[in-house]
Design goal:
Layout: H1 2-21, H2 25-45, H3 53-63, H4 67-77, H5 83-99
Helix pairs in contact: 3-4, 3-5, 4-5
Amino acid sequence: MDGLVGLLAIFLLIAIGFNLLSPSKNTINWRLTRLEQKVDLLMQQLNIEYVDPSSETIRRYLMQGKKLEAIRAFRELNPGTSLQEAKTVVESIAQTIHQS
């Protein structure tokens, strides 16, 4: 019985150790955001403009006045995106179209 309790204690310590050593989802998201910011800064300094191919599809729909189709297309091209996120991005693209 003592051996079983000892093994259980060791197992729990190992599990706790792995949990403490593995980065949390927030840490990974923070690192990814920082990396994206650094890449954006490098692209800005090198005067490189990135045009997302999917944004051309969205722009085409918006220029035709098909906002709902643009939102639907954005969500298909970016799986896991919420409806609100897609709407926000599409509206942002629409503003840039209307400003030019």
